[in-house]
TrEMBL record:
InterPro entries per the UniProt record, alphabetical: HAD-like_sf (IPR036412), HAD-SF_hydro_IA (IPR006439), HAD_2 (IPR041492), HAD_sf (IPR023214), PGP-like_dom2 (IPR023198)
Taxonomy, superkingdom: Bacteria
Membrane-spanning parts: none
UniProt-recorded name of the protein: HAD family phosphatase
Length: 231
């Protein structure tokens, strides 16, 4: 058994393990431009942080009156995203150190993401994180994306872990809400600093208001060992 006892750790991917939001923004900007919607801004993109690609483009259809189907828009956005992701994805250094520490300690881990399975695979293999993170759940594989708990509950099932024994690492309010709904504790590392006061983050066991600038592998490990003792 690991130093954390029965605890397992479930990571969100985008904005948590990797700084992929610039790629998602650019993919969204290119996609909307193709369908006659110019000037998609970063501020507009921020409202979709933590929400699945499918739910994002469904909102675009309503907001911009697009005639293309959700499936078509998802395919176009994913095509643009994968072109960017293969060469331009950066892992947050302290997150990589944290994943490697957990792997060394034999802690069970999973990734539960709103991205497509193909996008997750491209990111993990391209960054080398796949050597430690082999259990993966895409929101496309479950009935509802975040803030519903489905992806986290499925990750726990695949790990053979009880939800109460899982700790989620998340950067977005919908993900924190999903972790809470799943009955899991949460380490919250807000990607958008202005959202740190969102009520969803109030349920986190550890909230790092400074986001990645405040996150360290050592502090997260220390909190986890304390959580294991409290279990």
């Amino acid at each position: 058994m690991s130093a954390l006892g029965t605890l397992s750790v479930v990571f969100d991917l985008d904005g948590t393990l990797v700084d992929s939001e610039p790629n998602y923004y650019e993919a969204g900007r290119r996609t909307l431009a193709e369908y006659g919607v110019p000037d998609f801004t970063w501020a507009e993109h921020e409202r979709y942080v933590g929400i699945s690609t499918r739910e994002t483009v469904a909102d675009w259809r309503l907001r911009h009156g697009l005639s293309a189907s959700v499936d078509e828009l998802v395919a176009v956005k994913n095509r643009h995203y994968l072109e960017l992701a293969r060469t331009k994805t950066t892992v947050f250094p302290e997150m990589r150190a944290f994943v490697e520490r957990l792997a060394d300690e034999g802690v069970r881990m999973a990734v539960a993401s709103g991205s497509s399975a193909e996008a997750i695979d491209v990111i993990l293999s391209g960054t080398g994180l796949d050597t430690c993170l082999r259990t993966v759940v895409s929101a496309d594989e479950v009935a509802h994306g975040k803030p519903a708990p489905d992806v986290f509950l499925e990750a726990a099932r695949r790990l053979g872990a009880e939800p109460a024994d899982c700790v989620v690492v998340e950067d977005a309010a919908p993900g924190a809400a999903a972790a809470h709904a799943a009955g899991m504790r949460c380490i919250a590392v807000p990607y958008v600093a202005a959202q740190a006061d969102a009520p969803e983050f109030a349920t986190a066991g550890l909230l790092l208001r400074g986001g990645q600038t405040e996150f360290t592998a050592r502090a997260a490990w220390d909190w986890l060992t304390g959580a294991a003792r409290r279990s």
